[in-house]
Structure formats: C-alpha cells, structure tokens
Amino acid sequence: MVGHGDAVHAAGTSPSDAAAPGTVVAGIVECGDGYTSHELYDVKLTLLELLRGEAAGQRLAGATPAPGVGQEYILVRIKFEYYARGRPGDCEHAVKPEHFTAWSSNGTAYTAPTVAMPEPSLRGLLHSEQSLEGWIAVQVAPDDAKPLLTFSVDDTGAVQHGGKLWFQLYH
Burial code of 53-85, b = ≥16 C-beta within 10 A, e = fewer? Predict the structure, then answer.
C-alpha cells in the first residue's frame, strides 16, 4: 500500500505511458480563487477494478439504458486521494465522474454515457488527508482492445499541473 509521501510510479503522464490498473498515479492540482493565494495539493489515483462488456452490463442491469450503438460499458472502480502540500490546507476538492474521459486506442475521445453510476459512485467533496473510492462508467467500442482513461480537472476552474493523468482500461 502506498501512503502519502511514498514514492509512486511515474507512469500515467501520457497516452504512450498510460498506467496499468493497480498503479498509483500522482498529480498536482492548484486550489484558490482569483487573486488569492493558491495552494498546491497532491492527488493520487488508482484504478482498483475494471468490469467490461457483459460483466459491466450485469452490474448495471435495469439501472441504465443500453450503451450507444457499437459501444459497450466499462465500469471502473477508482481510489482518489487528496493531500495539502502546505498550510492552511483547507481547500475542498470536488471529485466527480465528469473529470474522467475514455479515449480510443487511436486517440479519439469517446462520448460520456448518461447513466446512473453504480454505488458507491466516485462523487464527493474531499478535504486534505481524505480519500474516496467509487465507480464511474464509460463506453467504448467492443473491438477497441486498448482504450485509455484520462483524469482532468481543467473544466472546473482548478488548475492541474503537468496535464492529464492517463490510465489503461485493459489488463
């Protein structure tokens, strides 16, 4: 188990070096409004479990519509950790499935499905030293053997240092 301050694998910084499931990927987000002092926070993400195709469909059975034409679901259970780098360390970080995007192996973003996420879903407000585990759902082409997943907070007004974090949606 990797704790705060432990060394983490450098994978996950680009599509060509996407992290395998189970790998802890570290990033940095900045919190602050306008001209106030912005604080840096370490985030660590780990893909704990992947369910694809029929296994994902069984988990979602009855709770969601069928995937789009020529698509299948992948369910991803993720651990999200959040740590302040300094004081005061009181910025909250909203974690939500919309921060994640599935990408085809040829570099095209997949459309996010509108589904009820399995419980527990990866959604919540974290304070420093807290973590959250939950599920997200994405959809991919059934014949895409090596789809990827990105994490990015750029749409929230927060600043993410070093760009998107990349993960393999396959074993």
Answer: eeebbeebeeebeebeeebbbbbbbbbbbbbbe
SS3 of 81, please? strand
Structure confidence by residue, pLDDT tens digits, 26-77:
999 988 666 666 889 999 999 999 999 999 988 887 667 888 889 999 999 9
Helix segments in the chain, DSSP class H: 54-60
Tell me, what's the pLDDT at 158?
Answer: 60
Task: Please name each of the domains of the chain with its CATH number.
Answer: 15-168 (2.60.40.1240)
pLDDT at 7 over 50: no
Instruction: Render the burial of 125-152: b for 16+ CB within 10 Å, e for the rest.
Output: ebebeebbebbbbbbbbeebeebbbbbb
Pairwise CA distance, residues 27 & 164, whole Å: 9
